[in-house]
Structure formats: C-alpha cells, structure tokens
Specification:
Layout: E1 18-21, E2 26-29, H1 121-130, E3 132-134, E4 150-157, E5 177-185, E6 192-197, E7 202-205, E8 208-211, E9 217-220, E10 223-227, H2 239-250, E11 256-260, H3 262-271, E12 275-279, E13 283-285, E14 290-292, E15 295-299, H4 301-309, H5 319-337, H6 340-343, H7 346-359, E16 361-363, H8 369-379, E17 387-391, E18 394-396, E19 406-408, H9 412-421, H10 430-447, E20 459-464, H11 471-482, E21 487-493, E22 502-505, H12 510-520, E23 527-529, E24 540-544, E25 566-568
Parallel strand pairs: 3-16, 4-11, 6-17, 20-21, 20-24, 22-23
Antiparallel strand pairs: 1-2, 4-5, 5-6, 7-10, 8-9, 11-16, 12-15, 13-14, 17-25, 18-19, 22-24
Length: about 575
C-alpha cells in the first residue's frame, strides 16, 4: 500500500475507510460510509477517490469483518431497518490520536516510531516482514522486565548497501561498526543515557561465535588491542560479537541490538519531513557534499546523511567531533519524532513505521513488530530533557608515536561505567538526585564525623590486592593529579589478593582517613583503626581489593553522576 495515499477523510480514522472486497481479496477504499463495496473487481493500484456504486434495494451490502474494527449496522432487505446507517464516524475527543507507542532508534540514528493507531493492522504483516533478524549465538534476550534497567546497542554500519550508496564508505567494507551507541534505559524509565563509543577506540575483542548462512557456527578467536569498529564484520563477526565487546569494555550486559546502514538516515529523515539542524558558519564540504548556510536548516535524505558523515567542516576534523555532530542531529530528530507535527499525522506515522522497519536488523528478542511496540511502550514516557548523549571519555593512544587511535580515559571511563552500572542518571531527574543525596548524607553521617585533613596532608601507601593489573598506579595517578594527594606511593602488589578494599590508619591519622574515605567512597567497614600512634611522616596503608572498579570510582558504589561532557536531547546546539 502506498504510504502517501491513505484515502484519509477529515475526522475519519484511516482504518474505517478500508474494507475487504471478497470478490477480489483486496482491501479497497470506502469513501461513502453508507454504501457497500463495489461488486466489480478493482486493480490493486494506488487508491484514488472515486464514486462507489450503492447497492440495489434488494441487495444487502457485503462487508467482510476486519480485525479490531467495529462493524456498522445496516438497513435490512425489505425495509426492516435496524438503525439508520451511520454517517462519518467521529473521532473521540482527546482519545483517537494518543501519543503512545512511539519509539526511537535509527541509523546513525533516531527513533523507531511504530504507531499504535487503529489502522496500523492494515500494514502489520508488511511492516513485520520488513524487519531483518539475527540470532546471536549464545545470547538470549530477557525482554523488558519492570523494575530493571536494560541496554540496547545501536550500530550504524559503513556497508554500502541500498540504492545510491555506492559512493559512500569503504567499498570493500563487510560492514564495520562505524557508529555505535549504547542506549541505557533506567529501571524507573525516567531517563536514558546514549553513550557513543568511538570507532577508533583500541580495546580487546573477546572470542565470539557467529552463525553462517548454512547454519553452521563460526568461532572467531579473541583479538587484543584492536580497533573497536572491527568487532563487526571483520573475520565474520556478527552483531553478537559487538555486544560481547561492549560488555567486556563497560561491564554492562547488552540486552538487545539494532543495526542499520546508510539508508536509515535518508529514509527516516524523509519520513518525518526533515530534521532541523544548526551550524555556526556556512558549510561547503567537497568530501561529504554538504552545503548549508549559517544558522538553522531543515535537512532530509542525502543532505541528512552528508551531515552525520561529515568530518572536515567541524571541530578538529576528527571522528570524536563527528560524534558530537551526530549526537546533536539525533537529539533534533528525537524532538521532531515526538512533536505534535509527527504524532498527529497518520501519514507521517505510517511512513515512519515503514521506513524504520525497512532500516532495521535486530536480535531475535525484539525481532517482530509487536516486540518493537513493547519496546516503544517502555520508552514512550521518557522526557527528552532526561535523555543524555555522552561520549566514552578517551585519551590518545600512548603506544602510538603519532596517535591515530584512542584508549579509554584511565579514571573518567571507569567512573562513567560505574554510574551506568548503578543506574545513575546523567541528567537532573529530581527524585533520583534526591535519593542519591540522601544516601550520600547517610553514609557520611556514619563514617565521616570529625575533622578532615587537607589533601596535601594525606599520606598513604597503596597496595594492589585487587587482581587488576595496574590498579595501584592508576589510583596513585588519580590521587595525585585529580585529588591533590601528592604524598601517595605505589607499593606494588599486596602479599595476597584481598576480597575488600581496606584503609588501615593510626589514631592520630583519623583526619587523614576521613579525607581519603571521602575521596574514594569507602564504607565504614573499610576503615581499620590501629592502636599505636604513627610518626609524623608515617603513611596510612590502603589495600585495593576485588571490589575495586577503577581509579576514582567510589568503592562503595557511586551516588552521583560523574562530570562528563554531555548534551540533552531537548537542547538545540549549533555545530561549530
């Protein structure tokens, strides 16, 4: 069915204008609600407005039942009228165009909006059949459980599939993870965080398995210190391998994935009638062919794809700056998809649903229209101001003389991972923020009564009993460079592994212990007071245990979001 010609009359639900003609087996347009269906077959072409013949007095209108549609009462043969035929069915005030089951995701990416309108069943089978499904080996979906956070991995590939995409990307690419976003949805559904993972990040790709076309299983060995983007496509890796790589990197279980190619951006932006973007200065990029005047523009199709692909016109022309542009674009697209202009247009909703399902390859756990609708319901109540876009904190790769790749920031990345693991929002969600403050205040009341020393007065020896290589040195770097604890020393490995982190101090070092406990998020049980007074220059002893999650990550679990650069989906930002 053509998405642009639904035969919609004013104030009429689109579903009520289509009925099944039993002689042709096709759904056909009914414009006169007091008439029956035509008795002559019609070709299955784009529906047009036409005069539909009325039945003769001796004929009862033939109308096949359509699932979910209330049948009209009709005049009986012989004049035994049950009820006068209804005129146009009126929309229930405030009910028919509810803003519900609209969801997101998309290509480099935006939201998969699958409408819950009454007429959606007319396209259900077609839309359901549009979705491509990959069943990652050894990964089972647990669905969406109330009271549990979940994570969706959104992967935009550089594979040149689709009409008009032959000139983009690496022509030999099997489809690498060119753009990757880990979308974390909070357990109370009040907020979400979209974490971009740079494609040039050096990380470990764990051993994984993928399913070949003939059904056999291919095992791909682990690869140490490889670019993140080769976790997909390279050596036969499928999205399940990328999911495992993200879990290895972040410590977060990835519940589902959505994968798209270049066509997603073009089709989704066209379906919503364009996306508003803003640039500080005019752009004329010969590489991406992006041309925009300074200020705001509305872009769609090829222009939208050029916008999210360009690197030469913004920032320092790096992939990290391109990520910022993509995040700004996605925020704008989310706003457009949740706007009244889209939500109240049946044509746009159906076009968007068709474009989204055509664009998607997903895991089996969300591999149907009904399951995507379930996902939409989980996301529909999140306010755009509580959707944050952030980028994994990184530094230049120290192993490269002229760094081209990056590695996770040694302290900021673990802090951000810990916050997501603890389901802490990066936005100011009032209830969650207050709960965190209350928890922090309670911990401090029990633990940190008394005077605290200044960071420059704290002396501590750090031993690594965590089993994590380099934990002591990364902690020393964090203490000295970010906390001002200059009198800290790396004492290498502890005599044996420790289950818990402990801080041993003398009675006359209590003020230092309180200060260090503040910095590291140590619980009261982690402090081990001694009985003998220490000398003036004698340090305390900190042993990192198995509960150590990373330098700067509170041992007792974070109570607030780390200070990372982010942008909220409700904010219009001009690209620089």
């Amino acid at each position: 069915m053509d998405a642009h010609s639904r035969g919609r009359a004013d104030e009429i639900d689109p579903a009520d204008q289509w009925v099944l003609n039993p002689q042709t087996g096709n759904y056909e347009l009914r414009l006169d609600h007091s008439a029956g269906q035509p008795t002559t077959p019609q070709a299955p072409t784009r529906p047009r407005r036409a005069t539909v013949p009325s039945p003769t007095p001796t004929e009862a209108p033939v109308e096949a039942p359509v699932p979910g549609q209330r049948r009209r009462r009709v005049t009986e043969p012989g004049g035994g009228a049950q009820q006068p035929p209804a005129s146009r069915r009126k929309r229930k005030q405030g009910a028919s165009r509810k803003k519900k089951v609209l969801l997101w995701t998309g290509g480099t990416m935006a939201l998969v909006l699958v409408g819950g309108a009454t007429g959606a069943y007319l396209l259900y089978n077609k839309l359901d059949g549009n979705i491509d499904v990959v069943d990652p080996v050894g990964l089972e979906s647990k669905g969406f459980r109330k009271g549990e956070a979940f994570n969706i991995l959104i992967i935009g590939t550089d594979k040149r599939t689709g009409q008009g995409n032959g000139g983009y990307g690496d022509k030999n690419s099997p489809g690498h993870a060119d753009t990757t976003i880990l979308f974390h949805v909070a357990k109370d559904r009040t907020n979400a965080t979209a974490l971009s993972i740079p494609r040039d990040l050096m990380t470990t790709i764990p051993e994984c398995q993928s399913r070949r076309e003939d059904g056999s299983i291919l095992t791909i060995p682990a690869q140490q210190q490889a670019r993140f983007n080769v976790s997909l496509g390279q050596d036969g890796r499928d999205p399940g391998c990328t999911m495992r790589t993200v879990k290895e990197l972040t410590g977060l279980t990835v519940d589902h994935f959505m994968m798209v190619d270049f066509n997603a951006v073009k089709e989704l932006t066209t379906a919503v009638g364009g996306v508003k973007v803003c640039v500080e200065k005019a752009v004329d990029d010969p590489k991406s062919h992006l041309k925009l005047p300074a200020g705001e523009s509305v872009i769609e199709g090829e222009d939208a794809l050029a916008f999210v692909r360009t690197r030469s016109s913004f920032g320092n022309k790096s992939d990290l700056d391109r990520i910022k542009i993509q995040q700004q674009f996605l925020g704008s697209m989310i706003r457009q998809m949740k706007s009244d202009e889209t939500l109240t247009s049946p044509t746009k909703l159906l076009d968007l649903a068709e474009a989204a399902t055509n664009a998607l390859t997903v895991d089996k756990g969300i591999g149907s229209l009904s399951k995507l609708q379930d996902l939409a319901k989980e996301l529909s109540g999140i306010d755009t101001k509580n959707i944050s876009f952030a980028t994994l904190p990184v530094i230049d790769n120290p192993d490269e003389p002229k760094p081209i790749t990056v590695v996770p920031h040694p302290t900021q990345a673990p802090q951000l991972f810990a916050a997501l693991q603890a389901d802490i929002s990066l936005t100011e969600v009032k209830k969650k923020t207050q709960d965190a403050k209350n928890a922090q205040a309670l911990a401090q009341a029990k633990l940190l009564q008394g005077v605290r020393a200044q960071p420059t007065d704290v002396r501590v020896d750090v031993y690594n009993g965590s089993g994590i290589r380099g934990a002591a040195q990364s902690t020393i770097n964090w203490l000295q460079n970010e906390q001002g604890v200059n009198r800290s020393t790396n004492k290498s490995n502890a005599p044996e592994k420790a289950a818990k982190t402990t801080l041993t101090y003398a009675p006359n070092q209590a003020d230092q212990a309180r200060a260090l406990a503040d910095m590291m998020g140590l619980a009261a049980t982690a402090l081990k007071p001694g009985t003998q007074a220490a000398g003036e220059r004698e340090p305390m002893t900190l042993v990192l245990g198995a509960d150590f999650k990373g330098a700067g990550v509170p041992i007792n679990g974070p109570t607030k979001a780390p200070d990372v650069e982010k942008v909220q989906a409700d904010k219009q930002v001009c690209a620089k």
